[in-house]
């Protein structure tokens, strides 16, 4: 008959009956009573009133009964600390029992009873168990030291248990070594400055020897410890890698990942010219791929780790792209992680394969996954420049499907591609404008507004398009409102006569929006030419002071005046300064030629005297925001 019968009773007066049975002279009846007590405790009944009666049952040679009593003690000792002291003598006696299982059971229970009053009484039995002749008792005692340290760290240090633990790293039994490493690692985590695991080549050799013989969890403890070791040279690093590599074929995925962690760290010390380095890279791929054939939960953990690995060394899995292709029955969290890894592994060699796969994903039924797939196409375009044209073509194909959420994601993505590759793909703007009316998501609307403002000179009816957004200005989200404001200012700088009316419209209670509007309005009303010039200094102190560098940098020699290039048939980015040959270049956030001058920048009161003239615009020290703000309120 099974033990399930102990969980079915609902009799009244049960505690009284159990008390009588626990004090019975018959061993079988006593064991049955303890089982009933443990069953009641398991289902949440309070049986703490039986504490003295259960403790009396400790005096037995029956291992099963002793285990049950110790289980009860671990649960109730904290709530009955005064009574728990009654069990101390039995613990001390059991630690000297001829049976190693009972000795180990006693020391394990001592570590689990978190009662300060009896901790000091357990030191001597623990010291004996740490030097016990049986390895099972020693490995159990090693873990007990870590538990005791958590209760009373000072006591453990005073009693010299930490030194004993360090000695156990040299033990002949691999499981004792593993548990000693685990205990020291746990203690070191709570005391980072203690340097308990002071590893040297000799101790590392012992750990590597134990690695082959201990259990899988013991291997994990040892591998994690090895990962914290710093080899003295590349030869030692290669030697450790050679001895850790066989763990890659272990059946336990945790052992595999711990081995990968060690190898990834020590590979930093190996020269890439070594033949062994290339061999190691090839050996790392198969175990990682194998992890993806496990259950979805394990797959996800493996994928999260692989994501980190490919960020550091994408060459490990560069030929394994197909294993990251999404399966129809993958959970969404696995799909999204695979998608991210695909983007990280994308290269000129495999981009055609990746794009074909992503285009297929964009026709799935899961909306969130489709959105991620469309965004992934854009990330591929930005990452692999040679594939940008193919990516834009794929996005246009997706826009033609007229699926609303696909179109909106595609527009957001194309905006990023425009920013990365100016002057290249403006031909698609007409297609984007055709879908203007279908945009209802703030991010997509803001992206489209940015495109219209940035390419206003290429769009004949740019003012009409922006005016259509202005009609529902107050109903738009803040993101769209801010983008609309900036786009209108850009349009005004390019077509001032046609858009004067648009710039003068609009009011808002949003402080961010209102302040940005004030800045733009003051810039434009004071000096539109100066506004154009300051746009070239966005991201520098000039944009903070609203003055050109020549107005506040001492010694204007070497300060090159910048202004927006004249508009011709070809489009040039607002932020793109003209180089010596008139070709558009990307503007660095802080021009290098200003760095020397800014070292001598005087941040004190403004220097009085005549303003320093620039080469083209006589701005001087005029504050474009100063004066006349009252008229705007």
TrEMBL record:
GO terms for biological process: intracellular protein transport; vesicle-mediated transport. Keywords: Membrane, Protein transport, Transport. SMART domains: ARM (SM00185). Residues 12-527 form the Clathrin/coatomer adaptor adaptin-like N-terminal domain. One of its GO terms (molecular function) is clathrin binding. It is found in: Endomembrane system. It is a peripheral membrane protein. InterPro entries: AP_beta, AP_complex_bsu_1_2_4, ARM-like, ARM-type_fold, Armadillo, Clathrin/coatomer_adapt-like_N. Coiled coil: none annotated. One of its GO terms (cellular component) is endomembrane system. Belongs to the adaptor complexes large subunit family. This is AP-1 complex subunit beta-1.
